[in-house]
TrEMBL record:
Entry GO CC: cytoplasm
GO MF entries: pyrroline-5-carboxylate reductase activity
Gene (UniProt): proC
UniProt binding sites for NADP(+): 68-71
Organism: Pedobacter changchengzhani
Record-given protein name: Pyrroline-5-carboxylate reductase
Transmembrane segments: none
Family membership noted in the UniProt record: Belongs to the pyrroline-5-carboxylate reductase family.
Domain Pyrroline-5-carboxylate reductase dimerisation: 160-261
Compartments it resides in: Cytoplasm
Known catalytic reactions: L-proline + NADP(+) = (S)-1-pyrroline-5-carboxylate + NADPH + 2 H(+); L-proline + NAD(+) = (S)-1-pyrroline-5-carboxylate + NADH + 2 H(+)
UniProt cross-references to HAMAP family, sorted A to Z: P5C_reductase
Length: 269
């Protein structure tokens, strides 16, 4: 069983760790979680994960190193772990937005394989949409990483220059759909439901809708056509939303997030 070090166990790092254990890809005792404030990992330590503030030691003990700090925290971490990395032993996976494989290799000054993965927080429950890219990792390592992320959701292999787009659509996307569900529930309260009931109704409606597309393999407009009765209330509400910029605002938001994702990292740190 390979040992995995997650360097920077915050929101996505911990979601990933939970998903890998929940789906039996890894045992908690084979995952080393690092974070600057160890107290934040106490509950994970009690579940059997190894926890430490020592990134260098964590890398030395691991076979797979997952970089999950913020882009602006990366350079300090790479300086810290550089001397613990052994070219033939380690595989680096980076989930960090906006930092290329080449930039990581150049900072480490090593001939090491780096694979980028862009998961989302639904990885904690095995439902991530994860995009993977590399600039030359071996087929063996790419397959291993693909299998790893397939245990916790769907995987698409993409060109590396599309990774910032994947960040916006799939990783930020969780927040966009959540806000849509929240807004729908607020509308539900205005028209007569208690907040908890409205939220439950909005969640199940969103879940069923996503499953309709998955199971029927249809286009959204095909399913919309089935809901919009002539002269009916759905088309009235939908057109009102479009007059207020519903599709346009999602498209613009995704474009801005993608732009921002590409500018999160500066080589200087
Ligand atoms: N949150 C999300 O949904 C996703 C985030 N990402 C990427 O993952 C990375 C992390 O994002 P989040 O988890 O949201 O941020 P976060 O701030 O929740 O997690 C980063 C963690 O790294 C720790 N850290 C910082 N410096 C450290 C150091 N020197 N040694 C050890 N730990 C250190 C912080 O204490 C923090 O717990 C970012 O680069 C982001 O672009 C990628 C996909 C989805
Ligand atoms: O907001 C962010 O910058 C990170 C990247 C994707 C999701 N969270």
């Amino acid at each position: 069983m390979k040992k995995i070090a997650i360097i920077g166990s915050g929101n996505i790092g911990l979601s990933l760790a939970k998903g890998l254990v929940k789906t039996n890809f890894a045992k908690a005792e084979n995952i080393i979680l690092t974070r600057r404030n160890l107290a934040q990992l106490a509950s994970y330590a009690s579940e059997g994960y190894k926890t430490t503030v020592d990134n260098h030691q964590a890398v030395a003990e691991a076979d797979i190193v997952i970089l999950a700090v913020l882009p602006q925290q990366l350079n300090a971490v790479l300086d810290e772990i550089k001397s613990a990395i052994v070219d033939e032993k380690h595989l680096i996976i980076s989930v960090i937005s906006g930092v290329s494989c080449a930039e990581i290799k150049s900072k480490l000054n090593k001939n090491i394989e780096v694979i980028r993965a862009m998961p989302n927080t639904a990885i904690a429950i095995g439902q991530s949409m994860t995009c993977i890219a590399t600039d030359g990792a071996s087929a063996e390592n790419l397959n291993h990483v693909t299998k790893m992320f397939e245990t916790v959701g769907l995987v698409s292999k993409i060109q590396e220059d599309l990774m910032t787009s994947a960040t916006a659509l799939c990783a930020c996307g969780v927040a966009f759909f959540l806000r849509a569900i929240r807004a729908a529930s607020q509308g539900g309260v205005e028209i007569g439901f208690h907040a908890d009931e409205a939220l439950k109704m909005a969640i199940q409606t969103a879940k069923g809708t996503a499953d309709l597309l998955f199971i029927n393999q249809t286009h959204p407009e095909t399913e919309i056509d089935k809901v919009t009765s002539p002269k009916g209330c759905t088309i009235a509400g939908l057109n009102e939303m479009e007059h207020n910029g519903f599709s346009s605002s999602l498209i613009k938001g995704i474009k801005l997030s993608a732009l921002k994702a590409g500018n999160l990292y500066t080589k200087e740190g």
